[in-house]
Amino acid sequence: MSTKRIQVALAGASGYTGMETLRYLQYHPVFEVVRVYGNQSAGNTLDSIYPAYAGVYDMTILPLDDIALENADAVILALPHGRSAAAVYKLLQAGYKGKIIDIGSDFRLKTSEDYLNWYNLKHPHPELLDRFSYGLPEFNRFALRGSDYVANPGCFATAIQLGLLPLAINALTSTVHITGITGSSGSGASASPTTHFSTRTSNLKAYKVFRHQHLGEVGQQLGILAEKNVSVAFTPVSGPFVRGIWMTLSGELNQTCDLSEIFESVYYNAPMVRLRSELPELKTVAGSAFADIGWQQDADNFTIGVAIDNMGKGAAGQMIQNLNLMFDLPEETGLLHSGNIL
Amino acid sequence: MSTKRIQVALAGASGYTGMETLRYLQYHPVFEVVRVYGNQSAGNTLDSIYPAYAGVYDMTILPLDDIALENADAVILALPHGRSAAAVYKLLQAGYKGKIIDIGSDFRLKTSEDYLNWYNLKHPHPELLDRFSYGLPEFNRFALRGSDYVANPGCFATAIQLGLLPLAINALTSTVHITGITGSSGSGASASPTTHFSTRTSNLKAYKVFRHQHLGEVGQQLGILAEKNVSVAFTPVSGPFVRGIWMTLSGELNQTCDLSEIFESVYYNAPMVRLRSELPELKTVAGSAFADIGWQQDADNFTIGVAIDNMGKGAAGQMIQNLNLMFDLPEETGLLHSGNIL
Amino acid sequence: MSTKRIQVALAGASGYTGMETLRYLQYHPVFEVVRVYGNQSAGNTLDSIYPAYAGVYDMTILPLDDIALENADAVILALPHGRSAAAVYKLLQAGYKGKIIDIGSDFRLKTSEDYLNWYNLKHPHPELLDRFSYGLPEFNRFALRGSDYVANPGCFATAIQLGLLPLAINALTSTVHITGITGSSGSGASASPTTHFSTRTSNLKAYKVFRHQHLGEVGQQLGILAEKNVSVAFTPVSGPFVRGIWMTLSGELNQTCDLSEIFESVYYNAPMVRLRSELPELKTVAGSAFADIGWQQDADNFTIGVAIDNMGKGAAGQMIQNLNLMFDLPEETGLLHSGNIL
Amino acid sequence: MSTKRIQVALAGASGYTGMETLRYLQYHPVFEVVRVYGNQSAGNTLDSIYPAYAGVYDMTILPLDDIALENADAVILALPHGRSAAAVYKLLQAGYKGKIIDIGSDFRLKTSEDYLNWYNLKHPHPELLDRFSYGLPEFNRFALRGSDYVANPGCFATAIQLGLLPLAINALTSTVHITGITGSSGSGASASPTTHFSTRTSNLKAYKVFRHQHLGEVGQQLGILAEKNVSVAFTPVSGPFVRGIWMTLSGELNQTCDLSEIFESVYYNAPMVRLRSELPELKTVAGSAFADIGWQQDADNFTIGVAIDNMGKGAAGQMIQNLNLMFDLPEETGLLHSGNIL
User: Per-residue pLDDT tens for D8-23?
Assistant: First the structure.
């Protein structure tokens, strides 16, 4: 391929989404990582943080404070709540001309009130909120193509929307009951009681029932895309695996219809969504940027199954998909790969 | 304790429910295992099949064909579909006077039509079906006390009913959407693609969506106990753990009510059910005979969580609870123990 | 059983060894837990710390500072390094007349120099060291019977000695190479990088190669029991499971002999050791107080396999075995049980 | 890249090594899969066997019997014992002119006597044995470059040799005690008792102690490369994870030396071997084609740790490395990638 490589910089090298971003960039034919930034990890080489990158990446992590000097074609932000907004502000103040994509949550919600409500934090730079497009390509592809600033959706929010929106935008149901099970990588790299091996192994545990913060994004999107509101009752669950989200969305159809037709028409030309003849397995998407969707109907009752890798289509994989669109590349560029199948 | 020990015999020593029956009987103060029977395992000692029983049980497994000679106070059947009915027939023909409890599925359904429908097998002895009581003590305690013949419920059927019946018998909802995740021990000791370590690890996979055979029992019980039918949409799922069933039951209440009051009144005096202030964890019940239940309401939407060990309250543990009742012992005798907490 | 119950108190209720002590005491016919003490957990009920104990234990945890008032027949200490010595001092100062067993490491080594060397801590009460007997019943049974103060061995130290001492005391080898893999419960209940689910799953990682602190105990015992020193090269490894230690001990015999004869003679009349015809499986001992040992010889090369539950024979189970001896009960009382076999 | 693509065909599409071969070929810049063959899987598409390949590979599997018609630049054989030899015979009979690499065991041993001895099978085509080179590039790189027929080493044989040969060829030790733990993928895709999730989870189990068939290859290589024989005592172990081999090699040095110097000189210019400052973790190599090696010395005692992915450097990854050499490409082409790091 003779395409000139597009240079990208990554802020947040040592967290899981940063680590996974680098994993996807190993295989990408166009994007080239030129610099990585970190906070506590600054000064270390990438392979001292992630020994699996020995022989693959040999960069030294730069201090996050130096991000203002960055002039790559794009900056990828993989930072904690509130830190992305600060970094964007700093970049723009310094006159940065390139594109920015934020894997974190700072620019997903359109109002600072919503941000306060769902994250219990005052947004540090509310004036920047309306510059960002919401990066769910399957429902926003045209706005994303060529866009300069994109907010990558949350992992649960991605899975919920991919299963729910086809019904919601066609007003086919009024209440959806969701059980979504997530892997431990969703809790990040810091040790905590919820990710302790001794208690997470062979366990399932619900948390934030009916009040997970990703419901903010989902509600915002429903408001934009669906004429009538749909009630969403979501039970998030911690599961005994590292990667992935596996979800059932159940309810009753309020009109007779064939879900196959609905899903096939909505995801026509969506290369990162694979429609399945039955509810998908989790393992099939682990390590990949694909979302797999299947469904079952029994009279008016339906159950839709959605499987994504929370770090793939739920984070770094979708970020690459968005970045492809931002640079007017085919959205699937560098992403048509399986993960470790076993 | 000066109580005379009650002698029990076990048919089906090498399967998982037989193995687990022996595990519960290790701790029971009244029941004493006097003989074990098996088919392919006959002639071997128990600890050659389960090395963990070395130093605990030293019996040799007798040929299943010799069951007709059995004269223990009770016979426990832990046999495959269709094999229990044959054993019961043989015992009764031979004049066996003791009690019988079947952990398997042969006597759960009241009609041979239902059996054919759900198990795709002609029932070998339909004339025996009405002798058996359905052993879900929390909803049938009085019939079970002193009973001679009891059919132990299915594992999923137990979890579903414990979560569903309190609502159904009070006509509080009309449709319940259930996602229930089961461990690999539910598939038995034979190797099969669904229990292959390489594919089950870190995976979740739905199967028999809307048509699991345990729905037969559930429907039968709903017909007996609930005035109006409740629609049950059940998605069974294979999970990456060995023991347990963890389940969400979701829907809308059709009248305002406080689920806490409902559950507390139904499970008042139910020693093997523990009501929780939030959705229960799976690990808390693994290895025990308890069922843990918690719930969450948001306006009319509800999610009920039920956790059992599929081999405990879902099989051998509940069998002991039933056997206690059959011999007029307190139903929790020998069962107020935790499993391996880690 | 008409035996008067022996009353025991437990200090350190919320850690894993305290939790596991309570699990063993569920089944014990003679010992009765009358009080539990804790530090940060004081004021809480046991089942609020370990929900699996709901319906099993309903005690409230007392402040550890009140231990001085204790007058039970025995006090079991399940406390961090250095804290046991302080508790023993306090008890004795207050005139406590009962027995004491320490699951922790404070009284395993005979000299404060060794303690400083292996734990990098000044021993707070070196004057108490020689009151304690080392509680490895298979090699010290007579000293333990009726003893008042016992130090329970470390988990790795138990596994190493059970495999090594039969050879060492018979001077059959000069160097033993050991690879021992331990479960995450060995790292305790606090979250840490080494017990993070995301990194421990599907992983194996060596640590403290050749310098694990349990080598102190092993060396001390070798000095007492073996005429000639044996060189021990030990690689401890973190494994992807919660319970258990699985170990290979390899080397060359310096004289022709039949290991079966050696092991059978050493472990004749050792009810908690099960000799196996091949290297043992880990799962067979998980949740139990048994140690399983097997071996293989090829000319002069040998490999001995030892499997224990690090919280069973490696901690709480062995503690019960010692406590049985201290009260002149058969050492296996309450211990001839399997764990969760699956 | 303007390089003309080299066309390869794969025989054995549905087994794990075939599946993994396709995974590596996703990322390879030069090799292109043009046809896949299978036996029972013939007629199916690749993604019906491995749903993770939907959107990645859309080929239909051809009947293995048609392999004789193959004319690709290279044929990769991923077939069971004895089946590769038959396929090679067929190809050569049909006048096939391209290169052949066998991932299986048929051409690793130089004599049919050895094959009979280690595999208990009469070799079907002993006349073909001497055409194949043994594909361990780190010790045979020059013979492999440009070679037409290569036998890929066994997974355990690879790990053992990478740790052992640096010492053996320098005559630094006389006996090496090895404990090697392998993932369930090593047992292949067929369900069997040793890969049952219920028994493999949280377990460790030794098998074929001192007599694993890969010792045949190791002995053959020792005979070629090491002046004096080294005694190898190997305990293979089944571990509770899917991918990888993690191994300790322990013994005593018979002369004072610095292992760092030894390993650094042997693996100078070995791009797929990463030398580590401590014993390597398993997770670091899972999904990759790297071998990670670390060591620790204490006086004369040494422990060397080797970690590989049994399907990577132990099978498909090493096969690509060999194929690169066979086509005179840099041996690391397409392989400098991490796997799923989590």
Answer: 999 999 999 999 999 9
